[in-house]
Specification:
Number of domains of chain B: 1
Number of helices of chain B: 4
Number of strands of chain B: 0
Oligomer: heterodimer
Order of helices and strands of chain B: HHHH
Largest interface: A-B, 19 and 17 residues
Strand content of chain A: 25-35%
Helix content of chain A: 10-25%
Protein name (chain A): Acyl-CoA synthetase
Structural class of chain A: alpha/beta
Strand content of chain B: under 5%
Family (chain A): Belongs to the ATP-dependent AMP-binding enzyme family.
Structural class of chain B: mainly alpha
Distance between the termini of chain B: 9 Å
Largest sheet of chain A: 8 strands, mixed
Distance between the termini of chain A: 27 Å
CATH class of chain B: Mainly Alpha
Radius of gyration of chain B: 12 Å
InterPro entries (chain A): AMP-bd_C, AMP-bd_C_sf, AMP-dep_synth/lig_dom, ANL_N_sf
Pfam family, one (chain A): AMP-binding_C
Shape of chain A: globular
Strand order of the largest sheet of chain A: 2-1-10-9-11-12-13-14
CATH architecture of chain B: Orthogonal Bundle
GO molecular function, one term (chain A): medium-chain fatty acid-CoA ligase activity
Shape of chain B: globular
Number of strands of chain A: 24
């Protein structure tokens, strides 16, 4: 687990330590310092049309420390805009022709140093979570020089993780991928010498699925996975491609910050990390199969133990995070099935690139386990069997209890992905 | 609505058993217990019927009845489609 030590807030400091780090954005190499200079009101909700403007707003906050909510322009609809104005923000749409400001009905004093995140809103409307640049800065202490890929949507927790690293640490370069470049990021990354990349398991699966050879040409020394349950199959596939790289997975969220970092190449974390309080470190616990975290780095107003809503299961000496509590458990005729564990069995099949497992209403049993899979583009030579429903049912039947075997398995042609780079699970 | 014939449902039932390496006998009087067709298989068969017809089956509609043979399963699902 990574140790994150507290340090004084950077709010209001004139010069972030990484301000001369190179940043590749829109295919152009510049530095943090050379990004456009902004004049922002406070508190401001900044809508960035692209990555360059988002980075400029992040630097503005790092220098001036004024209250900021930063997000991509596409994430704020009319209702959200009204909500932000109502909460006292000036809504500022950035763009090449200048900034357009909408003033709040009832202005309020700004809170210096405050940074707001809009959560991904996978379970309803996005909500605001309060942070500071300090509480978003996970990586501290000297780091080896790296060129980081940033594939995330501006203003999300994961985006800030990469951005704060480059802003606060000299020698941490950044290569930003715009949404339209996402499918071909390995070419961009190889061209700019990217040697560290962070993405969701879905992001990595999609990249392996599209062009594993192109991925292998990126000189990666650090691969990081997070944002979704991380299974052994994806860790093993990346290890095969990058035998010498450090492959890590991180459990982090807007609510609790970065709480778990695992570097040993295995899914889950060691069971002896549970209930071990240590100063400055998050404490991990399990209550009623739910991961509970008490963290020094949680969002504002979330002091104490935070129920994460993520379901965990202890398997052998590891604690596996299997999925969201409200969607992971499928009750098949009174027997509990973890969708995440079934998904892990499917993705461990050498010809499966991606899988989604859900419960479907069924007679007699109430619900049944069903699945969707995307096959790997090229048949693995060691596996002669065609990938069809019957073959996958047999594969699962050999590895799961009978009631957990998905009986209806649809084969899709493309891995579905959302703006957050997560699959819609 | 799209309705499957008894023979079409029989084909689906053969598929359900076939996926598990089992064979559906030709005799409608064959006991489900004997051929290893259980509640999970029955549920799967119902989902297959729903997928073929594009209609949800309403299992609340019919009263309880004894389903012990291959013929019982086929009769039940044929009847159920008509009650939509």
């Amino acid at each position: 687990m990574t140790l994150a030590t507290p340090r004084p807030s950077t709010a209001g400091q004139p010069e972030p330590a990484g301000v001369d780090n190179p940043v590749v954005v829109g295919g152009v190499t510049l530095t943090w310092r050379a990004l456009p200079e902004l004049t922002l009101p406070a508190p401001a909700a900044v809508l960035a049309p692209d990555a360059r403007w988002a980075l400029a707003a992040a630097r503005h906050h790092a220098v001036h420390g004024t209250e900021l909510l930063l997000t991509g322009a596409g994430r704020v609809d009319e209702a959200m805009r009204a909500e932000l104005l109502d909460a006292g923000f000036t809504v500022t749409a950035l763009g090449d022709s200048g900034a357009a400001h909408s003033s709040p009905a009832r202005p309020r004093p700004a809170e210096p140093g405050r940074l707001w995140l809009l959560t991904s809103g996978s379970t309803g409307r996005p909500k605001r979570v309060g942070h500071t640049l300090d509480s978003l800065t996970t990586v501290r202490g000297a780091q080896p020089e790296r060129t980081w890929l940033c594939p995330y949507a501006p203003g999300t927790y994961a985006w800030w993780q990469v951005v704060t690293l480059s802003l606060t640490q000299p020698g941490q370069r950044l290569v930003v991928v715009e949404p339209e470049q996402l499918d071909d990021w390995p070419a961009l990354a190889a061209a700019h010498g990217v040697d560290a990349a962070s993405g969701t398991p879905t992001f990595w699966r999609r990249t392996l699925y599209r062009d594993a050879a192109a991925l292998a040409r990126v000189p990666l020394r650090q691969l990081t996975l997070g944002g979704e349950p991380v299974d052994q199959a994806i860790l093993d596939q990346l290890r095969d491609l990058f035998p010498a790289a450090r492959i890590s997975w991180i459990y982090a969220s807007s609510e609790v910050g970065a709480a778990i970092v695992v570097h040993d190449g295995r899914a889950g974390f060691p069971v002896d990390w549970l209930d071990r309080p240590a100063p400055g470190r998050p404490t991990l616990s399990v209550r009623d199969e739910e991961l509970v975290i008490t963290s020094p780095y949680h969002g504002a107003g979330l002091a104490g133990a935070v129920r994460t809503g993520d379901r965990v299961q202890v398997v052998g000496d590891r604690v596996l995070i299997t999925g969201r509590l409200d969607s992971d458990e499928i009750n098949v005729g009174g027997s509990k099935v973890s969708a995440g564990l079934v998904r892990d069995v499917l993705t461990a099949h050498p010809r499966v690139a991606w899988a989604r497992v859900t419960g479907r209403r069924a007679p007699v049993l109430g619900r049944m386990v069903v699945a969707e899979v995307v096959p790997t583009p090229h048949a693995a030579p060691a596996v002669g069997e065609a990938l069809d429903e019957a073959a996958l049912v047999r594969w699962c039947a050999g590895r799961l209890p009978e009631h957990a075997v998905p009986r209806r398995i649809r084969v899709l042609t493309e891995i579905p992905v959302k703006e957050t780079l997560k699959s819609d699970v | 609505m799209n309705e499957l014939s008894r023979a079409q449902i029989r084909d689906l039932m053969a598929q359900v058993l076939g996926n598990q390496g089992k064979v559906l006998p030709g005799d409608d009087a064959a006991e489900l217990r004997e051929i290893g067709f259980r509640s999970l298989d029955f549920s799967e068969l119902a989902l297959r019927v729903e997928d073929e017809t594009g209609e949800e089956l309403n299992f609340d509609a019919p009263g309880l009845r004894r389903i012990a043979t291959v013929g019982d399963v086929l009769d039940f699902l044929v009847d159920l489609q008509r009650q939509q």
